[in-house]
Amino acid sequence: MVFDNDGRLVSFKGKLIHSLNKNEHALEMAAPVHENFGDADGLINDNASVKKRTDLLLLGDHLGDLEMSDGLDYETRISVGFLNDNIENNLSQYRKAFDVVYMNDAPMWGVVKLVSQMLKYPYYAISF
């Protein structure tokens, strides 16, 4: 992002990941990632290690966000939906589409707990 002298965002540098291109192609546009958490020396210049991962945690606030995993080669996907608008009319659809649904601008504690369980039980012996 590029800001002017007053701190206002005036433009974006590089390629932008947005709601219409959040899929496997976004990996090509993403910044390089660290192979190991907290390891600044572990910087890699491509996203090959991300593409090799077979487990996926997908977070979205729209049914269309489920398409973010299209084209990815994964074994396990856990999808978390955030339903904030028109809850009565959309809840049934969200429950069918997402593995977990949080409502009313729920805090991220549920997702943090889910990730903690995933790390503790690597074979996803998790109850929802």
UniProtKB/TrEMBL annotation:
InterPro entries: HAD-like_sf, HAD_sf, Pyrimidine_nucleotidase_eu. This is 5'-nucleotidase. It comes from the Eukaryota. Gene3D superfamilies: HAD superfamily/HAD-like. Belongs to the pyrimidine 5'-nucleotidase family. Its EC number is 3.1.3.5. GO terms for biological process: nucleotide metabolic process. It catalyses: a ribonucleoside 5'-phosphate + H2O = a ribonucleoside + phosphate. GO terms for cellular component: cytoplasm. GO terms for molecular function: 5'-nucleotidase activity; magnesium ion binding; nucleotide binding. It holds the Pfam family UMPH-1. Keywords: Hydrolase, Magnesium, Metal-binding, Nucleotide metabolism, Nucleotide-binding. The keyword Nucleotide-binding applies.
